[in-house]
Structure formats: C-alpha cells, structure tokens
Amino acid sequence: MSSEQPPSSGELATAEILAAASVTDRPLAVEPVQSGHTVFRLRTERHVYFLKTHSKDLEEFADHAAGAAQLVRREAAAYGCLRAHGIPAVEVVAAESSCDNPVGWPYLLTLELPGISLRDVVESEHPAWWAAVEAFGRYLAAAHAIRFPRAGYLTSAEGPASDGSSLAQEVSHRAEVVLPDALRDLERARPHLSHELAAEVERRLADLPRAIAGEYVEPRFVHGNSHINHPHLLIEGERPRFTGQLDMDGASAGAPFEDLHTVTWGMMAHAPRLAWWEPLFAGYGSVPDLDRFRLALLSACFYCFGDRNEVSLESLYRRLLTATTWHQLFTAHLS
Q1: Residue 46 sits in a domain of what CATH number?
Q2: What is the pTM of this model?
Q3: Residue that is last in its domain, among 79, 111, 143
Q4: Pair (33, 161) in one structural domain
Q5: Phi, psi of 268, rounded to the nearest 5 degrees
Q6: Among 13, 21, 210, 275, which one is least packed by beta carbons within 10 Å?
C-alpha cells in the first residue's frame, strides 16, 4: 500500500500495522489525537500505542514523503540515542521510512509514555510541581551531556550524518544563523516599538555573536522542540519520575541553549505564578548567565509573544532590557 498523503483513522489497517511490528495484541480501538502531525492512539488488549505520521511539512521538503521519512529516522534516532545513554525515552516499536507498508506513508509506532505532561503539572500548580520541574531539569542536563563530533540533525543513535549532509540553517546547528534570525524577529516587532527602543534592542542584540561563541565548540544533544507539553512525568507521592519526552523530529547535535530558551517561553506562558526557574536550574545543576538569557528572550520576543495581550510589546521589551533578577526577567510579560 502507498499513497501521497497520510491516512485518516478510517483508512488505518490497524491489525496489519501491529502485525508488521510483531505485536500480537488484539486491537480494540483507534482514536485520532490532536496534534500538528497526524497521530493516532491504538488501544489493544494489553497496551496503548501511538502511530505518528509526519504530515506537517515545516521544512518544505521537495518530496513530502521523502521528507516525512527523514523525520521518522530523525525521531527514532533521538529516542535510540537517549536510551543508549541510559536516559528515559519513548520506546519505539516500529520506524517505517518507506511508503511500502500497511499505512502507505512513513510512520513511527511507539508505546504510550506513562505519566502526565510537565505543562499539565505546572498549569495545575500540582503539589509536586517543584519536584517535577527539578526532575525535568536533571533529565535535561543528562541529555545535554551527550556529545557528538559534529553538528546536524541526528540520522542515527550515534549522531548526525558523517558527511555533514544533515547540517542545516538552524540556530542550534550554526552560530552564524543566530543574529540574523534575531534581527528578523525584531523587524516584525518594529512597527509596535518606539524608534528609540527598537534601536536599543538592536544594539543589545549585536552582542549575540560574542555571547554564544563558546556554545558551538562541542555539539551536544538538542531536542529541537522542547515545548513543555512534551516532557512526561509519573507523579508518585512527593517524588515525580521523569519517563520521557515526545516529539523529537527536530533532534540534533548542536548548541543546547536552544532547549532552555524554548522551555523558558513555555514556562512563562503556562506557569506565570510559579518561581519555576529555581527548581529547573537546581535540577540542571547550574545557573545560566542572566544577560545571556536576556539576549535569548530578546531574540525571539515577537515570535513568542507578538500575538499575546498580557502586556504591550513596548513594555515587554523595556522590562526585558532592564530586568536585574530572574523574577523580573521571567515575569516581564505580565501586566
């Protein structure tokens, strides 16, 4: 079976998919899952599986199916890499990179991760939120300790392609991409800012190349899409256990600060009343430089908060520029 696009739930040959992966459980139900990609929950007698077809083409591949195959290999490689280093990760049951399969499209079949998302924990202000964020920080530090000889998207559990073909124009791959990317974000914000403020932000951003210079010397594991709904934890009493992180089709070897940056925006948006940075940094094992974080927030301010109404962009940029404490920096978006 092959097709030019991912299937719908009514078109899934569930029994054949499970059999191809040597799963002997009898299928009970198939349910679509709300996601940017096309994802289905497959319930069987004993387990719950997730089938993911990479239908969202943010990288604008010339061949959609071939691009989806790359994403399948990339995500499977990330989970395999983490597991090889003894770090909790999603268990891959099958990774099909061709269209010659029961789905008719490249897909990833995984076991359900136990637990709930980090976003659910902090949004609800669960009594164990501090310990959960600290556990996530420890996981992030362990993942970022994995080192590679070169930068690029992961193509196997060992790292990026040895010929350099998986190196891309990504901020986690190449230092020279960071400043132009930040200036593009500022241009989008400029109509909302006074001339004086925009000029000051641009002046500050000019310091980015110096600030990030050492981050690219030794490429390390980078998730690429470290949004806080992706990490999962099993809440058992007062000691949450990290079980894994979803959605790693952007996994790379590169500069890991990008993960901390993405996590920060998520926490600012979904945990505004919590001092989440304290357990995060405690678990991570180090406190980053505040000015480096300021530059990171300034570099993607419009992308992350341009469509939000908590505070004007003028006020947000000014608060980011003048913050002298973590609390001031991470609550700059609040009115």
Answers
A1: 3.30.200.20
A2: 0.92
A3: 111
A4: no
A5: -60, -40
A6: 210
Please count the CA atoms within 13 angstroms of the CA of 313 that sit on its side-chain side.
23
For the chain, what is the domain count?
2
How is residue 232 written in tokens? Answer: 């999962």
* Sign of the torsion formed by the C-alpha atoms of 231, 150, 216 and 281: positive
What is the end-to-end Cα distance of the chain in Å, rounded?
55
Angstrom distance (rounded) from CA 300 to CA 268:
13
Is the pLDDT score of 49 beyond 60?
A: yes
Q: By the 8 A CB rule, do 180 and 186 touch? A: no
User: Domain range for residue 98?
Assistant: 9-111
Task: Judge if 122 and 76 occupy the same domain.
Answer: no
Considering only CA atoms, which of 57, 73, 50, 42 is closest in space to residue 4?
Answer: 57
Render pLDDT for 61-79 as a digit per residue (tens, 0 to 9): 778 888 899 999 999 999 9
Angle, CA 184 vertex, CA 178 and CA 189 arms, to 5°? 125
